[in-house]
Amino acid sequence: MLLTLIIYFSVLFVISRLTSRRAGNEAFFRGNRKSPWLMVAFGMIGASISGITFVSVPGMVLKSDMTYLQMCLGFIPGYFAVAFLLLPVYYKLNLTTIYGYLRRRLGRRSYKTGAAFFILSKLIGAAVRFYVVCFILQHFVFDAWHVPFVCTVLVMVMLIWLYTRRAGIKTLVWTDTFQTFCMLTALVLIIVAATGSLGLNFHGLVSKLAADPHSRVFVFDDWASRQNFWKQFLSGIFIVIVMTGLDQDMMQKNMTCKTLREAQKDMCLYGFAFVPVNLLFLVLGILLTWLAAARGMALPQMGDDLLPMFAASGQLGTTVVILFTIGIVAASFSSADSALTALTTSVCVDFFERSNDERLRKRVHLTIATLFVVFILVFRVVNSTSVIDAIYILCGYTYGPLLGLFAFGLLTHRQVSDRWVPWIAIISPLLCLAIDLTTQYLTGYQFGYELLMLNGALTFAGLWMLRPGTS
Questions:
Q1: What subcellular locations does the record give (predicted)?
Q2: CATH placement of domain 1-382
Q3: Which of 96, 183, 188, 362 could join 330 via S-S bond, C-beta 3.0 to 4.6 A?
Q4: What is the pLDDT of residue 28?
Q5: Interacting residues of 446 by C-beta distance below 8 A, sequence separation 6+
Q6: Measuring CA to CA, which residue among 254, 28, 350 is closest to residue 161?
């Protein structure tokens, strides 16, 4: 296992070495605008999925069947909206960070507010995602050596810092391609191993899946359910618009393509890829429920524990344990490394406004890596919910103001009183929380992923009321 990880990281450092020659800030922030679009598209699959998907999505079948695919279907029009509504704006303005648009359209404080909410959201979200890989590696590798969890986190973050510190986004376009390949290969081989353990061929697998109650995808008959089709589908659209189109991390790679046309092609391609990839994760979840029943194993109470339970018990053999670890590492590193790079970019460009200062960039990169460690350790202490739900709940509160700011800028021609924008961005999430708690108390209804849309609408309404000169 340890030898496998050493080989894996050695490949990452070789790629980093080859791509970082004569690299400066232009390469770190924008990849010199020379990235092959097909390479970006393939690598973005791994960067967008992350280790959270690897652990949480298979376990979703225990409580919500395959209804997560409804949200994945919503991702497709969401990616098209980003490709043809947002990317043209970013390319036209030749932006290094997408929050520069807010400065030109609404003002300096709006610009700083958007960047601040991105940094807060990304630090929290990336810490949650990377917590998964650190926990898995601790359990499968480092516990046997009696290595403390703190040391595991420090080593993992240091590795990311080392292979991204020179060329940043230019390196990530290529390392993400390698990591996505490893992740998808591991996923397919685990499914093959599980299918073989059940003695099923392809036809038998498809027939049994169709008859299984967990294969339910669509929910149209229950409007109160969080799994209702329209809630999931519409939430999927807005989650992509916000978590990709308004997220410097996700957009930074897309803006390294040579032309707008190539960037649009890469986004549409990997947008379509999410349905089959997540379908494979959900199929794996159903396969594991069959294996548990066949071997008399009790299913875990938390869905996040389903796949790790089989990997830890060795029920599918040592090979699957190795594949599981590689898949988790590949998925998690491909999202964590880009988060670290995007955060460094935003702090240097949006806050210090010094995009040509290499010395500052190196200091910020190291500081962000340190904060990354702190957030991961804090999340280990306070986490008590399903990991993937925690990500989207946080997204609803911290990305909502970004949705409102960009929607106001793109859909209206009105100006705002820029000095009050930060207060609107803070009040809107607090109002969302109050509305959610009050609704639960009075009616029992709990907001789900649609909280993101409510938050964005409240921010938009607040901005609409702020005319220039408002005191």
A1: Cell membrane
A2: 1.20.1730.10
A3: 183
A4: 93
A5: 226, 436, 439, 440
A6: 28
Give the Cα separation of 469 and 471 in Å (integer).
Answer: 6
Q: Residue ranges of the chain with pLDDT lower than 50?
A: 384-385, 388, 471
The position carrying tokens 């970019």 is 345
3-state SS assignment for residue 257 = strand
The strand pairing partners of 35, in sequence order, are: 257
Torsion of CA 21, 43, 38, 361, to 10 degrees: -40
Strand, helix or coil for residue 35: strand
Please measure the distance between the N-terminal and C-terminal CA atoms of the chain and give it in whole angstroms: 63
Q: 420-423 long-range CB contacts below 8 Å, 24 or more apart? A: 420/466, 420/470, 421/106, 421/107, 421/109, 421/110, 421/113, 421/463, 421/466, 422/109, 422/112, 422/113
- Size of the chain in residues: 471
- Provide the pLDDT for residue 5: 79
Model pLDDT, residue 469? 58
How far is the CA of 467 from the CAs of 53, 101, 123, 456, 462, in angstroms? 43, 19, 33, 19, 10
The pLDDT score that the predictor gives to residue 299 is: 84
Instruction: Give the model's pLDDT for residue 132.
Output: 72
> Contact at 8 Å (CB) between 167 and 23?
yes
Question: Any idea where the domains of the chain sit in the sequence?
Answer: 1-382, 384-470
